[in-house]
Design goal:
The complex is a heterodimer of chains A (408) and B (137).
Chain A: H1 6-13, E1 21-22, E2 25-26, E3 28-29, H2 40-52, H3 63-82, E4 91-94, H4 97-107, E5 117-121, H5 130-139, E6 142-146, H6 156-162, E7 167-173, H7 185-194, E8 198-202, H8 214-217, E9 221-225, E10 236-240, H9 242-247, E11 258-260, E12 267-268, H10 282-297, H11 300-318, E13 324-327, E14 336-341, H12 346-354, E15 358-359, E16 361-363, H13 368-374, E17 379-383, H14 390-407
Parallel strand pairs in A: 3-15, 5-6, 5-7, 7-8, 8-9
Antiparallel strand pairs in A: 1-2, 4-10, 9-10, 11-12, 13-14, 14-17, 16-17
Helix pairs in contact in A: 2-10, 3-10, 11-14, 12-14
Chain B: H1 4-16, H2 21-34, E1 48-50, E2 55-63, E3 66-73, H3 76-89, H4 94-99, H5 104-107, H6 122-134
Helix pairs in contact in B: 1-3, 2-3
Classes of the chains: A alpha/beta (408), B alpha+beta (137).
């Protein structure tokens, strides 16, 4: 029998929304792979900014503008250090993971030529499929897909065969949002570099579950969303190696990204501003910095280890329920469990769990090709974070048993 | 033969006895199991309304001045709500289906199932029922 450690209760107390009741039942929030909740320090920072600091950045000589600019750039530096980037110029603020991938598809894509190949995997989120399909269509590139085993792990032999001198980019998720599989990105990165291919890591899921060090990973791009690491929505980060970002043309045109504009010739600003056209999501960047400050303030090694314990407990108990089938059985897995129960439709189970206060995700999780691979309409996905408790897992299991009884 | 309004009032009365959400859904699930639906062999792409979460198949016919519908879904809760909608819409004149207010869904607290964000195919089904009725006005 495991119990929730005190430090998890302490972390939990920092998140006001977790006290909410849904349909008169205590909220059990197990949809953390979709978005994480926000600690009070982040919520307070947003309010404080609008009450005391609001101004546009990078252009004002007045006091408020300088304060806001300083805070925004401090957030960039904090993020740079947190993910182990060499320079703050390598940290581009985006709208989120999807925006980061689209930026790379557009600007790195501009450097590619007909016949070049891009490799993705069969477990990618739609946001790491569709931008490449659009690019491949417009530039006559080949998009190739690394297949997976039934247990939800990559077929690495197939990767080795697909990888060639023609491969210019390997764009792959660090952790599957549907299966929880942690991919062997270190090996993928070194093998890709050996043939001269660049590597983009989709870190949407990994950013909240462990420390990331882009320098030791040696990836060329790393993208993530702020809202999946206790920050606000609408802000994200693209890390790119400086040399590569220098070579790439700008993504969008507008203010902030230029040095000089004339009708004859416009010159572009330096990194990172070259890729940040227009007034950015200022408070998004600042509050993401605060979210990173929060995660740095807790004992995250213990918290990440605890997440694994919670996953193991949930999976063990879940499998005691008749007809439960878990999708994603990699030995390297992060804290989410995707499953179905017999022939019960995931939408039905999700609806009845919701009525009992349990927030899970049901459906295809924006990975339709993966659902086709397993020949299912969708799954129920319970995804955990550092503030979830053992008691919540028990409530979830009780609610699930009741839902199954009603639906059988 | 009860009117469009009366049929809806009767459904509201059926649901009023339940305080607990799970009990309401047990009734919906029962209704979903009871209706005939459209057997998989008779389903086709023309009938299909693709939802993000569940799929719906809808067939409609017009005879003796009234509309009749049959429908199905791969999710039983969706099918239960379909059963309620069919109970209300079947045997009604096209004009009634287009013009009269559909209020019971909201009254029994199921409006979330007809919201665009729910993506279970039901909103699309109601729209198509009305479009099909419009062809016979």
């Amino acid at each position: 029998m495991i119990s929730t450690p005190d430090y998890i209760h302490d972390i939990r107390a920092d998140f006001p929304i977790l006290q909410t009741k849904i349909h008169n039942k205590p909220l059990v929030y197990f949809d953390n792979a979709a978005t994480t909740q926000k600690p009070k320090i982040v919520i307070d920072r947003i309010r404080d900014y609008y009450e005391n600091e609001n101004a546009n950045i990078h252009r004002g000589v007045h006091h408020l503008s300088q304060v806001a600019t300083q805070d925004y750039e401090n957030a960039r530096s904090r993020i740079q250090k947190y993910i182990g980037a060499a320079k703050s110029e390598e940290i581009i603020f985006t709208k989120g993971t999807t925006d980061g991938i689209n930026l790379v598809a557009s600007s790195f894509g501009a450097l590619l030529k007909e016949g070049d190949e891009i490799l993705i995997s069969a477990m990618e989120h739609h946001s790491n499929i569709v931008p490449w399909q659009l690019l491949a269509d417009s530039k006559k590139l080949q998009l190739k897909v690394i297949p997976i085993h039934k247990d939800g792990t990559l077929i690495m032999d197939a990767f080795d065969q697909l990888l060639s001198e023609k491969t210019k980019l390997v764009s792959i998720t660090h952790i599957s949002n549907t299966l929880g599989t942690i991919n062997p990105i270190e090996s993928i990165i070194s093998k890709s570099h050996a043939v001269g291919a660049k590597v983009l890591i989709d870190g949407a899921q990994s950013i909240q579950h462990g420390d990331i060090d882009v320098s030791s990973l040696n990836c060329d791009f790393f993208v993530f969303s702020g809202h999946k690491i206790f920050g606000p929505t609408g802000i994200g980060v693209l890390y790119g190696k400086e040399k590569l970002l220098e070579e790439m043309p700008p993504y969008q045109g507008g203010g902030d990204m230029i040095k000089n504009v004339s009708f004859e010739k416009t010159t572009f600003n330096e990194l990172p501003f070259k890729f940040e056209a227009g007034t950015p999501n200022i408070i998004g960047g600042i509050a993401l910095g605060t979210a990173i400050e929060y995660i740095e303030s807790i004992d995250r090694k213990s918290a990440f280890d605890y997440e694994k314990t919670l996953l193991e407990y949930a999976e063990k108990e879940l499998l005691k329920i008749e007809d439960v089938q878990v999708f994603g059985n990699s030995s390297e897995k992060t804290s989410l469990v995707s499953f179905n129960v017999g022939s019960i439709h995931p939408f039905d189970l999700g609806t009845l769990l919701d009525k009992q206060g349990i927030a899970v995700r049901t459906g295809h999780h924006c990975t339709q090709p993966l659902m086709d691979f397993y020949n299912i309409p969708g799954t129920i996905r319970a995804s955990f974070s550092i503030y979830n408790t053992v008691e919540e897992v028990d409530l979830f299991l009780d609610a699930l048993r009741r839902a199954i009884t009603v639906l059988s | 033969m009860s009117t469009f309004k009366e049929k809806q009032a009767s459904i509201i009365a059926d649901f009023e006895v339940f305080d607990d959400w799970m009990d309401k859904y047990e009734l919906i699930i029962e209704l979903g199991k009871e209706i005939e639906g459209i057997i998989p062999a008779k389903r086709n792409d023309r009938q299909l309304i693709e939802g993000c979460q569940s799929r719906v198949w809808l067939d409609s016919s017009f005879s003796d001045s009234v509309m009749n519908f049959s429908a199905d879904s791969d999710a039983i809760i969706t099918k239960g709500i379909i059963a309620l909608l069919i109970k209300v819409f079947n045997g009604e004149k096209p004009e009634t289906i287009i013009k009269e207010e559909l209020f019971f869904i909201k009254e029994i607290g199921l409006q979330e199932h007809l919201s665009p964000t729910r993506a279970n195919g039901l909103l699309g089904m109601v729209k198509r029922m009305k479009m099909d009725a419009l062809k016979h006005v």
